Amino acid sequence: MESKERLLGKTIGDLKQIVSELGMPVYTAKQISDWLYKKKTDSIDEMSNLSILNREKLKTRFVIGSQPPIQKQESQDGTIKYLFRTTSGHFIETVYIPEEDRETLCVSSQIGCKMNCLFCMTGKQGFSGNLTTDEILNQIQSIPENSGLTNIVFMGMGEPLDNTDEVFRALEILTGDYGYAWSPKRITVSTIGIIPGLKRFIEESRCHLAVSIHSPYDDERKALMPVEKTYPIREILDLIRQYDFSHQRRVSFEYIMFNGLNDDLQHAKDLAKLLAGIPCRVNLIKYHAIPDVDLKSSDTAAMPVFRDYLSSKGITCTIRSSRGEDILAACGMLSTKECRIFAGESF
Ligand code: SF4
User: Fold this and answer.
1) pLDDT digit string (tens) for 43-93?
2) What is the whole-number distance in angstroms between the Cα of residue 123 and the centre of ligand 1?
3) 3-state secondary structure (DSSP) of residue 157
4) Secondary structure of residue 63 in the 3-state scheme
5) pLDDT digit string (tens) for 184-195?
6) Which of 309, 260, 264, 301 is nearest to 282 (CA)?
7) Which of the residues are catalytic?
8) What kind and span of H or E run contains 336?
């Protein structure tokens, strides 16, 4: 079984190719995609509108490939963290965040991460590989809450725009009529700003964009996020300015607040100047300390002052409320990722 390919993660183009190779009629590609993404079957045998012969042909080369999570941890506030084992034998986390009016899933795109952001626990793990399209979609398809999900955020482990091929295929299947047919308005991809991937994302996808900014100053951002050396925030913003984010599609900026580092009024003033002319929102995020890193959480008084200044400059600004602290704090791989506190925001 393990040597067989997975059908989960195949686009309609892939499925047409497969059915043609197997000598099946071309319309069976759409039937298979319906079983995979609309009926969410976990067995080829259930594909009852395919002839028995065609099911047998499919089974010679393929399995569905959905894998249930191997562990689940539930927070007092209802947030649930799922642990999945990847085909390469590594582990990834996915976080389900229920709220009154929506249910959000925070998915991972890589095993670990290369980007080495100073404040991030995932970055400390190093990089063990990209997730494949099926491993990305499996996080969505295999949780019990699947049918109630209203939003998906790519804010879990890894940098999604460092794994563009697999992430874009997952987005195609998520939003395609033949796939899950989700509105792109319900999906947000969060990035630290890998410019080539970002350009491709803005041009090829209509999903919302979230950019981690964390400081308006080059040197300070460089110290927090080494990616600034290769892709400076000013170039990222120049790129964003070339596209229209004033209508349905949103761009937001994530700003983790560190005590005494980036949480004073001068930072707020310079951030407002930097973002001038971009219709956007800023999400202020409380930092939660990780071991061996000399960064502290902003005190609670600083955040509203910062928010009010940005609001006075016409920038919509929200302070994210913390979710799932009891399960995501301490040793959780996602402990400093944005999705642990993805709440109180209306994408
Ligand atoms: S914050 Fe994101 S990009 Fe930076 S190390 Fe962590 S996972 Fe990677």
Assistant:
1) 999 999 999 999 999 999 999 999 999 999 998 989 999 999 999 999 999
2) 5
3) coil
4) strand
5) 999 999 999 999
6) 309
7) 93, 331
8) none
